Amino acid sequence: MDYSLQRRAVLADVYAGRTGLFEVCDASPYLSRAAKYHGEATSVACPVCRKERLTLVSYVYGDHLGPTSGQAKTEPELVRMDAAQEEFTVYAVEVCRSCGWNHLVSSYVLGAEPVPGQQPRRGRRRAATE
Q1: Residue ranges per domain, the chain?
Q2: What Pfam families does the entry give (predicted)?
Q3: Cβ–Cβ < 8 Å for 92, 50
Q4: Based on CB atoms within 10 Å of each CB, which residue in 1, 43, 69, 75 is the most buried?
Q5: DSSP 20-72
Q6: In 3-state terms, what secondary structure has residue 95?
């Protein structure tokens, strides 16, 4: 799911003065830290402060992920999880590490669809030769 229309509406309200910067530039310390250590730099300038490029942070959620659910993951980690896990949801959030702007950009599903009657793929690792 793409949230670009919602993003445009929020930014239109900010530019028109109907929404204050304190309402949209409210990235939590956890989100800012995830952007620093797990985020992927983009070429898009922050639409609010225009000082820095946005960082994309991907969070994973799924009942079968256990303690991994809710964690930020890098792109290589998502690729590995896609190959080794049942379906899980990824939420991509753009973050400005300068002013704190953040917005949900998209959500999508990765992983293999569970096959009825087959054992879950939890924790299964690929062999080194694959």
Answers
A1: 3-110
A2: DUF5318 (PF17249)
A3: no
A4: 69
A5: -HHHH----HHHHHHHHHH-EEEEEEPTTT-SSEEEEEEEEE-GGGGGGTT-E
A6: strand
Classify 92 as helix, strand or coil: strand
Q: pLDDT tens digits, residue range 29-56?
A: 999 999 999 999 999 999 999 999 999 9
pLDDT of residue 112: 84
The structure tokens listed for 8 are 């445009």
CB 109 within 8 A of CB 60: no
Answer for the pair 45, 52: CB distance below 8 angstroms, yes or no. Answer: yes
C-alpha–C-alpha distance, residues 71 and 6, integer Å:
24
Q: How far is Cα 100 from Cα 20, in angstroms, rounded to an integer?
A: 13
